[in-house]
Amino acid sequence: MSRAKTVACLAGDGAGPELMAAAARALERVSKLHALERDDIHLPYAGEAVTRCGHALPATTRAGYRESDAILVASPDEPAFAGGASSGGRPESCDGLE
Questions:
Q1: Spatial distance between the Cα atoms of 39 and 69, rounded to a whole number of angstroms
Q2: Residue 53, φ and ψ in degrees, nearest 5
Q3: Which residues contact 20 (CB under 8 A, 6 or more apart)?
Q4: Contact between 21 and 85 (Cβ < 8 Å)
Q5: Residue 7, CB half-sphere, CA atoms under 13 Å: how many?
């Protein structure tokens, strides 16, 4: 039996949580269709991470997705957090995700 694949889910901010919910439903259907075992881990990202951790792409998030088999990114585009000094710039450019 193969081990479950880990998917790092980075919902971000703005419409991200809604997009992530829809993507997760689709991924669940595909997983069932193809008998794939999957573990989702939800990590703070973009505006959500700035609010919770003080940085758009905190070290705990980077460590989490580096240990995952796949990364699912929804939306890093909340205008209130775009490019500000406290956000650390666009989060996807912080660690080569773009």
A1: 10
A2: -125, -10
A3: 9, 10, 11, 12, 72, 74
A4: no
A5: 16
pLDDT 10s digits, 33-48? 999 999 999 999 988 8
Three-class SS of residue 9? strand
Angstrom distance (rounded) from CA 49 to CA 2: 33
Residue reference for tokens 């479950």: 4
The pTM of this model reads 0.79
Q: Which of 62, 68, 72 is nearest to 25 (CA)?
A: 72
Q: pLDDT tens-digit profile of 36-87? A: 999 999 999 988 888 889 888 899 999 999 999 999 998 766 666 555 434 4
Tokens of 41: 């881990």
The residue whose two tokens read 């439903």 is: 25
Q: What does the alpha-carbon distance between residue 67 and residue 82 come to, in Å, rounded to a whole number?
A: 27
Strand order across the 38-42 sheet: 38-42, 5-12, 70-75
